[in-house]
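[recover] target loaded
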């Protein structure tokens, strides 16, 4: 029963993102964390409240986590066309060991 639940969670969380989606996720991470840090510093400095600054920084980090970590569909707009799998046939060579064919 727990295996089925774990498999359902794994299927729900596992997602595909393409190379452009990875670039977008990295850019969003940089911009959102940078903006949250700047806003947290400015508000904390203006209010002279480090606790408020830390809460704003934490909220920005949580927002960034929600935007970047899940595999949202807009991260997979340019999927790559991969080559079909190559089937491996039996090796066309043989090895002689002490007069016997191996492999």
């Amino acid at each position: 029963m727990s295996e089925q639940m774990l498999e359902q969670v794994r299927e729900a969380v596992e997602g595909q993102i393409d190379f452009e989606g990875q670039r977008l996720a990295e850019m969003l991470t940089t911009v959102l964390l940078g903006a949250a840090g700047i806003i947290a510093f400015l508000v904390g400095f203006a209010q002279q409240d480090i606790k408020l600054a830390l809460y704003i920084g934490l909220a920005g980090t949580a927002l960034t986590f929600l935007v970047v970590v899940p595999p949202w569909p807009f991260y997979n707009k340019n999927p790559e066309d991969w080559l079909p799998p190559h089937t491996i046939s039996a090796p066309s060579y043989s090895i002689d060991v002490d007069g016997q064919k191996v492999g």
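[recover] notes: The longest strand covers residues 95-97.
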